[in-house]
Amino acid sequence: MKIALVGYGKMGKIIDEIAQSRGHEVVARLRETPTIENLNDPDVVIEFSNPEVAFQNIKTCLENKIPVICGTTGWLDKKPEVERIAMENGTAFLYGSNFSLGVNLFFALNENLAKMMNKFSEYNCQLEEIHHIHKLDAPSGTAISLAEGIIHNSNFEAWKLDETKEKDLGIFAIREDEVPGTHSVFYRSEVDEIEIKHTAFNRNGFALGAVIAAEWIVDKKGVFAMKDVLGL
Ligand SMILES: NC(=O)C1=CN([C@@H]2O[C@H](COP(=O)(O)OP(=O)(O)OC[C@H]3O[C@@H](n4cnc5c(N)ncnc54)[C@H](OP(=O)(O)O)[C@@H]3O)[C@@H](O)[C@H]2O)C=CC1
Ligand SMILES: O=C(O)C1=N[C@H](C(=O)O)C[C@H](O)C1
């Protein structure tokens, strides 16, 4: 499979190594806006850039009928538009706030726990995420996915950064050294606390998941999520 990497920073470089180790050809490594010329005729694009440029990058690829796997976080207000463009152009799009297998299992665990805890008003819930100091967006995309899983299964109506207030579920975002990504969900009562936590030791799990998603999507049309790839 021919893969174009749009965004070639911390993630792009690891994805490059993993893609090649799985027998794929990396035909473009871009740190600039993609064009039909510099993409170099890929079967699929893997996009890990930054929140400012992701929408335009994805749009260009989809309008040229190239399937896109996107891991960039912090641009999600435009996701419905991207999904429309993918459908109109008869191609495929998959966004994952987190491509690691462990976090996708954690998402399922979180939803099940939220359903159960919603029956017990003794417990209040909040989320915490810890990332490296270079991260541009807060809260993390993963924390937003976790919050959506809780909101869908509880009486919370929305999430709020750095504060839990009435019907708003608090997400506390901490920036520390070079931490690759830690997410915790806490249920706290007056007498005890339940915590579920995922700790990424490095970025390899994110990168491998993105390559597996690219292998999965290449002959498909439509809008997908990582749970489709993993059969969750
Ligand atoms: N979904 C997931 O599993 C994960 C998602 N992420 C997310 O992925 C994104 C990238 O993370 P990371 O690799 O750590 O970030 P980096 O800052 O290390 O890399 C970003 C890259 O994008 C490049 N870039 C800048 N402008 C453009 C443009 N217009 N088009 C294409 N590329 C451009 C930068 O180039 P230059 O250096 O020259 O500016 C750089 O190579 C972030 O949003 C992060 O939150 C991260 C890890 C896992
Ligand atoms: O920016 C990062 O590094 C990460 N971003 C993703 C997010 O925002 O959730 C995934 C992972 O936590 C690392």
UniProtKB/TrEMBL annotation:
One of its GO terms (molecular function) is NAD binding. Residues 1-99 form the Dihydrodipicolinate reductase N-terminal domain. The keyword Amino-acid biosynthesis applies. It catalyses: (S)-2,3,4,5-tetrahydrodipicolinate + NAD(+) + H2O = (2S,4S)-4-hydroxy-2,3,4,5-tetrahydrodipicolinate + NADH + H(+); (S)-2,3,4,5-tetrahydrodipicolinate + NADP(+) + H2O = (2S,4S)-4-hydroxy-2,3,4,5-tetrahydrodipicolinate + NADPH + H(+). NADP(+) binds at residue 31. (S)-2,3,4,5-tetrahydrodipicolinate binds at residues 132, 141-142. The keyword NAD applies. It is an enzyme of class 1 (oxidoreductase). Keywords: Amino-acid biosynthesis, Cytoplasm, Diaminopimelate biosynthesis, Lysine biosynthesis, NAD, NADP, Oxidoreductase. One of its GO terms (biological process) is diaminopimelate biosynthetic process. SUPFAM superfamilies: Glyceraldehyde-3-phosphate dehydrogenase-like, C-terminal domain (SSF55347), NAD(P)-binding Rossmann-fold domains (SSF51735). The active site is at residues 131, 135. Its EC number is 1.17.1.8. Pathway: Amino-acid biosynthesis; L-lysine biosynthesis via DAP pathway; (S)-tetrahydrodipicolinate from L-aspartate: step 4/4. Belongs to the DapB family. Catalyzes the conversion of 4-hydroxy-tetrahydrodipicolinate (HTPA) to tetrahydrodipicolinate. Homotetramer. This is 4-hydroxy-tetrahydrodipicolinate reductase. The gene is dapB.
